[in-house]
Amino acid sequence: MNAADAPNGPLLEFGPGGIFLGCLTESARPGAQIGVIMFGFGVSECRIARRLSTLGFVVMQIRLVSNYDDVQHRVRFYDDCGIWAFVQAIDELNSRRGIQRVILMGNCAEANLCFNTALVEPRVVGLIMTNLYVNEMLTVVDECRRNIFSLGAWRRLLTGDSSARVLKAFLLSRMRGANDQSLAAQSCYKKDIVLPLDFDRKLVSLASERGVRALILFFYTEIGLRYFRKTYGETLSKLVAAGSLQFEVMLKDLHEFSTDDEAARQFSEIVATWSEKLIVTPNRERMRAPITRDASALEEAVSHASICERFYAIARAYADQLAIRDDGRSMTYAELATESRRVAGAIAATAVDHGPVAVLLDSDARCPAAVMGVLAAGRVCVPLDADHPIERNGRIAAHSGASTVITTADLVA
After folding, report:
1. Terminal alpha carbon distance of the chain
2. How far apart are CA 405 and CA 204, in angstroms?
3. Nearest to 89 by CA among 21, 10, 7, 191
4. N or C, fewer C-beta in 10 Å, the chain?
5. Where in 108-224 does DSSP place strands (E)?
6. At what angle do helices 366-376 and 333-350 cross, to 10 degrees?
7. Beta 404-406 vs 357-361: how paired, if at all?
8. Do residues 377 and 342 make contact, with C-beta atoms less than 8 angstroms apart?
9. Angle at 118 between CA 282 and CA 49, to 5 degrees
């Protein structure tokens, strides 16, 4: 792990006797009200932590087991007391930073743990779940006919009910080397990491009763993707239509992100774009009226918001309308917002410090996108005039303390 991908702060101990490890990435904006708790200190986790901090989140990365590579021990711990440990992390974030609302993020078994924690922890307002873990017996579920597989039959099988003998016989015939003992081993996890069989109904309940929003992301090779589409597809589609859920499929595997910068950037942007909607809209004290096409209502809605919140609220309200045009291009508000987020992500991924960022561009459509990107990254923007002598721009940049400059190759030349 290089310096750019290392955690942004020292490790901290929490929980009884300091048995768990965490690391805080401070929000780039003052007065953060929502925190993100995510598992791991890997390359993609550290990049996402930095990206989310630029949006205004306090991010806490955690590790609940000492030997993370011992998968069997880790999953067993999650199943025995994972929810309790997760609540310890939420309490720690509240104690250190006063955060009362949190987003939980995890992959595979840790994603399941996020969901089950949300069911019992009212401070959870958002879920980012990648590759939700399903029992290995479901690897053949897409071969099952509807009259063989059902949630009822699956529940009876896991509880040892003999009435599930048809499904059991089917699984034994399809799973290589399977027997009664191996089927029992596959159903050994009963508690914190097992998704409820009525997962879809509980997700609807979280959305309707508590306003919890969710991002579910699968990599296209995952068995769980087929299972979720087949079993919960109708409900998930309704939640997507209602705006409570975003469901994404990526072509790259999470384990490739440490070597594939583009895949890591894409994953980070999906998470950041989804999270940004959550941090802007729930603040009812600021957002006093819904964003509408009516200009007076829009002004009322953003009257107490930051510059970035105002801009992105306007961009959502007038997404398809022309925002800016120069001699060579034009951008709608949606395109301008997307470009500014791309700039913010690049700053978070490459900048070596948290100081000012200079912008040296011609007076074209790219310039406001760059300025908004700098502000979205939580940095001070130092605009430089491309028509001024390079020496003057150099003095301004040096005096401001800017170590990063957004510019083009022709201006550098």
Report:
1. 33
2. 46
3. 21
4. C
5. 124-130, 213-219
6. 50
7. parallel
8. no
9. 65
pLDDT in tens, the chain (413 residues): 344 445 667 789 999 889 999 999 988 877 788 999 999 888 778 888 888 888 889 999 999 988 878 888 888 888 888 999 999 999 999 999 999 899 999 998 899 999 999 998 999 999 999 988 876 555 455 455 555 556 566 666 666 667 677 777 777 776 655 666 555 544 544 566 777 777 888 999 999 988 999 999 988 766 678 778 877 888 999 999 998 999 988 876 655 555 566 777 778 788 888 988 776 544 333 333 344 445 555 555 445 557 777 788 788 888 888 888 877 788 899 899 888 888 887 887 776 667 889 999 888 888 999 999 888 888 889 999 888 888 888 889 888 888 889 988 877 76
Tokens of 83: 């929810």
Closest CA to 283 of 300, 298, 299, 305: 305
Interstrand relation of 101-107 and 381-385 (parallel, antiparallel or unpaired)? unpaired
Placement of tokens 């006919």 in the chain: 145
d(CA 356, CA 376): 12
